[in-house]
User: Fold these one by one.
Assistant:
Number 1:
Amino acid sequence: MGLDYLSLLNPSQAAAVMQIDGPCMIIAGAGSGKTRVLTYRIANLLEKNVDPFNILALTFTNKAAKEMRARIEKVVGPEAKNLWMGTFHSIFARILRSEADKIGYPRSFTIYDTQDSKTLIGQIVKELELDDKLYKPNLVLGRISAAKNKLISVQQYLNDPVIKQDDEAALRPKIGVLYQQYASRCFKAGAMDFDDLLYQTNVLFKDHPDVLNKYQNIFKYVMVDEYQDTNYSQYLIARKLAAKERNICVVGDDAQSIYAFRGADIQNILNFEKDYPELQVFKLEQNYRSTKNIVWAANSVIKNNQAQLRKDVFSDNEDGPLIEVLKAASDNEEGKLVAQSIYEDKMNHHLSYDDFAILYRTNAQSRAMEESLRKLNIKYKIVGGLSFYQRKEIKDLVAYLRLTVNPNDEQALRRVINYPKRGIGDTTLAKLINSAEESNHTIWEVVSNADKFLPTRTANPIVDFAEKIKAYTAVAAKEDAFEAAKFIAKNSGMIEELYADKSIEGLSRYENIQELLNGVKAYTEDPEREDKSLGAFLQDIALVTDADTKDAQSEGEQVTLMTIHSAKGLEFRNVYIVGMEENLFPSQMMITSRADLEEERRLFYVAITRAEKKLTLSYATSRYQWGNLRSCEKSRFLDEIDPQYVDFKFSSGPAGSPMDSAFGHVLERRSNLIPAAPRKTVATKYVAPSDFQPSDTSNLQNGQRVEHPKFGFGQVTKLENQNGSVKAIIQFEEVGEKTLLLSFAKLRIV
Ligand code: ATP
Ligand code: MG
């Protein structure tokens, strides 16, 4: 045995770890070791010689699964690699990959991302000549998604009088028809959206008892983390899989249920007790993560919710500092205060930037934070937001790859049929789509037989395009994902097109394509991957969740910026919750009822309980929203924290500086009272001189100082020769490290 884990658990945790047969549930407060129990419970099963292939553990993010696996590996060794672990979506995508043909999909089905789904809905709305202001893709997709998560089929949707009434009352009677069209178009394209991965798994298990039986025999032990945020579709999958052996263990915290808007149903906890009367319930009450002040503050907030299972959470940790509240005059000043506070804390307490997280309610709030962090030269990473895979050039290449694996993929086909330009105009495309609809063929069937549907001149470029895709499919059948992707990137003309664009943006797009290819290479070179095919790679990247992007950009110490939703389950030494204002947090859009307000409050509870040692809250009294400066009122949530846990310091500011009387327990700091951090702060953006002339850099040396028209001054720290082209790594004074290809970069040696 690699690690004596029982000594790392308290008696209730150990009891939950040792209980391995029969159903079990742990609903306990934040930071009480639920995830830890799940981890060591799996280690314990493996030590009792349960085959890792028989254990299924469902986590909230892929990253959480990875971490859990690594911990288990420390106890039991490499056997841990064979565990079935991952998010509901990734595990059941994997299962559908080998079973989809039974429900009429190709095994090489495409996974549509949210953007694909919205585009498709937009297209259908247009084709049906519906009002696109009434039938906004986002809204329609939301309705369809809610239906799927409740396992409401198209037929049920169309026939249900209550749904009909609802949609009619909302003046959107055609949602059912849109659902029908959308589902049939996805099916024809051999595509599943995210909700389908769960919905179709349910269909598979319902219509094919033999398949269900097979997986019931495989998954002898089922475990679910963050159970409070499962939706009905997920609940049913877990219940079906565990129906035979009844070895199911779920852990969660009703106070942290924050995904009701996506169909998560707290009812699943109550159902669990009904489904398994022989259930064993474990209570964990001690919080090991946070200081007493943080735990008490969190308790005092959640107490305001009526719909909460009562539980007492306590901490044996130190009291720790009180919770600090920063008040700023504007969002920009808020950013400044937070960045300075991080800088000072890091210096004064010898911390790493990895110890800090800034959490916000909406992604848009990151901008002001980013700006201030950059000015203090503080490195940061944003989790979620526009991820690498959402960039245009990456989506273009991925569309080619998707088409290669599944030529019926309508959204991919539309994206690249005329990119790079090959003279296939919108009218021709419209004709193709029409022909497909009329003849009941898929668009690909029409495209690959274009000469039968269109006059020769129009058909020619389409026939060429179809030939290309067929050739790619042949390559992908023989080669691994990397060889196939490289071939496709070149042969499609994409590389040439991007290479020709010598602007900085063009260069960065070109580098992104290289980066994607590097990613494919790393994927195929990973010795633990069995399936190195292009299809497997595409599935992997389609399932990257918001919270998973954290690792992708990690380099050195960095402050983490993310939404509170993505922070679930995580912990950081010092946490900043910013934008504590009415209409922002609680969000204006979300508080039309008590239930909504309570969900926002649970979100606040999640945010508070991410902090280990120090929690700081901030708000601004004015903020730009939709381009207008608005004055803001501080959040009601601030007043809900028992004031004894909040820092009570007066600003040493100018005499008579107004105190917020209703809010005495506030540390008021004004950014101009805080001495500027000693690091270089650049307030003005570098502007290149108008006579900027790049020099010849063929003899550039390490250590040389250079000037770049956009990035300003910097020093060469490394030169690398890569297949004949030289890459320079340059530490720029304002923008930090950049890697540039010398043949493109306009540099002046100074
Ligand atoms: P959340 O509700 O946020 O998901 P959780 O209940 O899953 O939290 P964990 O993340 O498992 O809690 O544990 C919180 C922290 O406390 C972790 O750093 C964990 O290692 C630590 N911890 C848990 N139990 C113990 C223990 N018995 N002794 C020491 N540390 C512990
Ligand atoms: Mg947890």
Number 2:
Amino acid sequence: KSDRLREKQNEIDSNAVAYPNNIPLAFDEGKGATLKDVDGNVFLDFFAGIGVYNVGHANPYVNEAVHEQVDKLTHSVDFPTEPRLELIEKLEELAPGNLSGNSRVVFGGPTGSDAIEASIKLAKYNTGGRGLVAFRNSYHGATSGAMSITSNSKLKKHYAPLLPDVVHAPFPHPFQEGRDPEESVERALEEVRATIEQPYGGLANPAGIFVEPIQGEGGVVVPPEGFLQGLRDIADENDLPLVFDEIQAGFGRTGEWWAAEHYDVTPDAMTTAKALGGNGLPLSATIYHEDLDTWGPGDHAGTYRGHVPAMVGGVRAIEYIQSHDLLDHATEVGDYIRERLREAGEGDSGLGDVRGKGLFIGAEFVDSEGNPDDDRVEAIQQYCYEHGVLVWTAGQYDNVLRLLPPLVLTQRQAEVGTEIIADAIAATAE
Ligand code: PMP
């Protein structure tokens, strides 16, 4: 059945659809951290729709309320609804540092890219600037503004001109740079500072700094201590908004509500999406300091920012994560998986680096010369699929095995899944 669906999709769907050819799968049903395909095969889901199903597939606590809401009202544009206000209050309370209790939320419509566009417009509106500081190895989305601050030139080359005056500074990646973490941070911050502060040749009229606190598509790159704080300092000294893209790293994935909390650094604005709608319902938001709320009515607009079932999903997902202590659980299970992967890589020079926080996990593979080994990661992904575990890849060179299981993954499921990944690592070793 999977084959038939894929054949039909090839005939009638867009050529732009993209998934790895080595996992020939058609989904039918999800439950918790498992997925069933249309042929009845059951998989452990270690990718969760790219970090969407944080509370698990078909979470009953979320679905119960969503079902009720679907029968009642689905769309309210910007008019108030109880779920909308409830979700705003929860997000304003959960926001990190001094954003908590001092923030505003603007919903962005269905995609993370929508929230990124809102954050770019917010920064420009408040500063009157137009230059954007972003980072190498970043991913922020597929719309024109989001593509502009994304660094991957392969994704952008057919769409020029994008936004002008975007500079991509280095994002510290000690493993790839072969530098010690402190030096890597220093080098990155120096370039950001030069970009903003150089009198000649700097970025004219900057509007803000946009950064993933932990890079996702770039390969689960966890910046060393000091980097985000350094950006905070530069932003403060130059009176610029610092914007964190928490679309992949946020909403509990790293074992804190927001990746920013691991570093004790508070942004002026942050984006969230993916897991925000609860059970895969599309919703995104930009949460920003109330001092930046200078917009007037309609200065930023959108039809689908009143998706009531997704808002109900968000409220319920937050409650579920809190009542089941899923942040601590994600930390414990994530630490276990990282440890087990490191053990599996002992004596295997191909497994260069295992990193991440909570259930945001990356394992970077290199060949015997230390170059990115995407073939190995593809082979591991295929082995895992054939043995019942769905895993994802990431990184500029596609050489990072990326794991983003639902936060409800049980310890037992983690053990079974990681054992299969460890087998895949062994089976693909030279
Ligand atoms: N920012 C980050 C950090 C992301 O990981 C993504 C999606 N992978 C986006 C933005 C864009 O989100 P969407 O695909 O929903 O537009």
Number 3:
Amino acid sequence: MWLSRPAQLLCDAWSPLNQTPLSGPLSTHMAWFLCLCAFLALALLAVHLKLRLSMHGPQEPPHLPTLPLIGSLMSLRSPQPPHVLFKGLQGKYGQTYSLKMGSQSVIVVNQHRHAREVLLKKGKTFAGRPRTVTTDVLTRDGKDIAFGDYSATWRFHRKIVHGALCMFGEGSASIEKINPEFEAMLDYSQGIVDTVAKDSLVDIFPWLQMFPNADLCLLKQCVSIRDKLLQKKYDEHKANYSDHVQRDLLDALLRAKRSAENNNTAEVSAESVGLSEDHLLMTVGDIFGAGVETTTTVLKWAVTYLIHHPQVQRRIQEELDSKVGRGRSPQLSDRGSLPYLEATIREVLRIRPVAPLLIPHVALSDTSIGDFTVRKGTRVIINLWSLHHDEKEWKNPELFDPGRFLNNEGTSLIIPSSSYLPFGAGVRVCLGEALAKMELFLFLSWILQHFTLSVPSGHSLPSLEGKFGVVLQPAKFKVNATPRAGSETNKCQAC
Ligand code: PLO
């Protein structure tokens, strides 16, 4: 029989020590039986592998309903701000899902494992940025660092700015000086915050710029005021430039531009192609903008929560009194001995992250997030709000509790969950993280050393909701700053 030979081989193989080989009808049946077993085992293995692949193998993320042209916009109509809406949609679609903004594919990530994969493990693959109408107006078509796409020029810029921020960071007098042009900056800057990069309709459907658009008009006006200020600073710096003195960030950028232009080595001169005047101006615009808007926003949230939680304020003041006293202002060197104040800053950054959706990332090649396939060009939104309010990671996430960032004894700082990324992470991590933490510490420690903050009588407590935009700002509110006993500063009221 044609099957008996392999079956015999099988038998031989399985019983190498068999001294009396089976023969006759019995051996034929045995061979058939073994073949059947082998066949069944193979079939089962194939089914198992297929199931595994369909369960865990490459697949598209769950998708919100989509219509032609408008994409998933119908499912995104909501009175809630986008970060809260995206968090809520997890219930129906899971922690990572996709949707369409017009014709643009977007993946929303609401959990820290996938967020870390995007930002850290595959940081370079996801280092792209989308181009939108409003960010193009702000950044002269992406010639800055925050909104600029990933490229050699971008990497070069970032390296210079990183170096300059390190140089003019800690110990620099520039933090303490208040610039007289600051007020003007705050004014135009608010106009930009209100109109840029908030996935407005014109960013989703660029052809809408053909029609009159009040927001776009305001943005262009504010950008032109900003540009005049930047140009003035640039011209002043260029006129007084010296290779031997570096006063600030702009001097550092100018120096890098000159040395790249004078340097003929292949690597540097290739990179210098991108270092135009526009790039320098836009980079300075980023640093000014980010420096002003982010720090003031976190301070406003800190004041909001301190008014809501007077016991937290009291505990910070006790810590300040015992570790610093009243005779001198707190200094950066005191940071290590004021853990409760540091924990409070961390908790403010958790409960109200400055940029609850960070800035969208773009996949630069076909890739994956967890078991989900991601096509090149897909936008990825990291919902920091979901990470910072994840019930599985944080006990009572809506409760303001600085203590969660301290060890049991309350003596040293901890990060209790991996689901905490207030400054993002990886290739695009916030360049000003260290500077921001220093500024927040200096401002808050000084304020609380001198004043107790409260709500003026007749006013209600400030809202905790926030206004969504490129940064999440608290609504305006009034606050009483009462000088503490022993402090000579006068009482003042601010808004
Ligand atoms: C704030 C208004 C300014 O006029 C321009 C500006 C520049 C850089 C932006 C910043 C704005 C908002 C906060 C941003 C920052 C770059 C990085 C930072 C987006 C729009 C954050 C939080 O990611």
Number 4:
Amino acid sequence: MAQFQEVSRQSSLHPKPAGLILQYGTAGFRTNAKQLDHIMFRMGLLATLRSKKTKATIGVMVTASHNPEEDNGVKLIDPMGEMVTPAWEDYATQLANAEQEDLLTALKDIIQKEAINMSQEAHVFVGKDTRSSSASLSQAVLDGVSCLGGLSKDYGLVTTPQLHYMVCCQNTQGKYGDATVEGYYKKLCQAFIRLTKNASNRTDDQKYLCIDGANGIGALKVREMESYLGNELQISLFNDGNKGKLNHQCGADFVKVQQKPPTGVEINPGERCCSFDGDADRIVYYYTGSDGTFHLLDGDKIATLISTYLKELLMQAGLDLKIAVVQTAYANGSSTCYLEDTMKVTVCCTKTGVKHLHHAAQEFDIGVYFEANGHGTVLFSKAAEEKIQQQAEDGNVSDEKKRAALLLQNTVSVINQTVGDAISDMLLIEAILTIKGMTVQQWDAIYSDLPNRQLKVKVADRRVIDTTDAERRAVSPAGLQEAIDGLVKKYRQARSFVRPSGTEDVVRVYAEADTQESADALAHEVSLAVY
Ligand code: NG1
Ligand code: ZN
């Protein structure tokens, strides 16, 4: 077939370095950009097959998120904006690792196993972040798509969640919104403005927000969005990419892991600030006290704020919908206690990685999911959205119930339900603080985090560590869990676990305890037990 000849011809322009083996991990492929040209071409091929198979548009995002500028990566997006299925992750790994002369065989193998009709049309949306390597790498994806006769739309520079949104809009025939960047801004900003209009006596302090753009795509997109916000949000944007290096000493991952403010941001005491990561799918908030102490409001605090707000609105609207919060083992113990004991909401714990949280959240009427690092969103079931809409439109309900239902309706619209989205989460948080008339300090005071520490340990082979119970306990190597249990017993309110990273060649260690000294000491001792 001509298509396969074209694949052979073009693949020689995107050769695989012999012997290089890469794995499609939690966030797709991610490594030094120099090793990725063949991967990108092949992911263009695979996305085209996935589109033919699903008879829907598939997304391909070129980004390495919070990794250093020298890295890059690629991730496929399924029709509803979600991650691809495990079987297709395996195909991605097989196709990526086939030596040059075996590529056609590997491709035909997938076509046969999935019984793909090669005459079916294929549509692929492609997006990229601001890394210098992203331009040529996304061109390699486009080359892969065209080889197999797929039609591509290149969105150019977009955030990861924007591309997820476009894919979902396209495959729902516009029911979720317009598959354009402008459509995205209009939907989110209009909902935000409707929400904030509900607040009486909104002060200038409430309108003012300081953003660290991590010198990445999020900064560019915030600038683009500003004109859609009217004067409802006044943004001071730092680390906008004009001077600094992507993710270097800044961004959500740096702030969360280092537990300190990013460089490049002028923070006045008490001021509300937030940081995006390199592809704007994560967000954390923070402020400094008048004594200079740093206060972080991470994904757990965000999940608590959002779920409290939603629970109150559901009560006011007289709607009986089940709300749950989905977390991972990295969630601060205080947040879990507060949610379960004080808020009385269901809390689930899943393995690390957004696809696990997303999946668990789909089981509820309303599922709020956040990783502690600030990646998360809220999912509303179809039935929940319908009930909210009915209540908002019902002529017989009280004004109070109607007002709450209308707020819920606009809240649904401001949220990007396809994936965690720093821009959408930021608008939601800003709206909630405004509606509740809450300062960042009051939000922070809902509960106090247990001091914690995260460390990375380099080992010869991280895969020797196997875990169970949503990664909270190690089942191998033998004796490791017992050693951790013994160390944890030495400290108060302590908890610790280890797991192999899905995105870096390291083992991650997490510890929390009653004081920072104890958390640091426990993390250190556990990391020694990992060797
Ligand atoms: P790994 O490297 O598997 O820990 C990290 C984050 C995840 C997730 C992925 C994808 C932590 C502890 N881990 O995974 O939560 O965001 O990257 O980006 O933050
Ligand atoms: Zn990211």
